[in-house]
Amino acid sequence: MIRSLMTKITGFIAERSHSPRRKCQLPVRVWFEPIRTPGIHTSTSDNIFLSGETIDLSKTGIAFAVSAIRIRENYLVGQERILNMQIDLPDGPITLQVIGRRYEREEIDNHVEKYIIGAEITRLENEERKRYLHFLRFAGNRRGPASAGVEARS
Asked: What's the domain range around 135?
């Protein structure tokens, strides 16, 4: 009895400690923030991005699906690498920065797989933040336009 009560209380606290998530599918593009060192530009992934779609959104994070876990030799999750992301909201695109925190490989069939990535929002400019939060509050329950497919583009 006490154990089941504690489990319920722990579940309630865990549920309230995270921002509520809104399921929606919106097209996204993800690319690395260039690594710049004094006097030398060392990023090899400029102008290369992955296309995918969101799975769910919250005030603090985003889950999205892409067809690959890396762009060239750089993994999307780990090493605290900053990712730039563009989300196509119904009223126009927004650009933000995220850090990939976790991923899960999902096999669609024998030959096709996708990666579900959970990312923390680290930067979102004020005007775009207002649009994003407005979308979460008023339109987050509607399904957005689905992308034609999840594919890597160069």
From this structure: 20-34+41-153
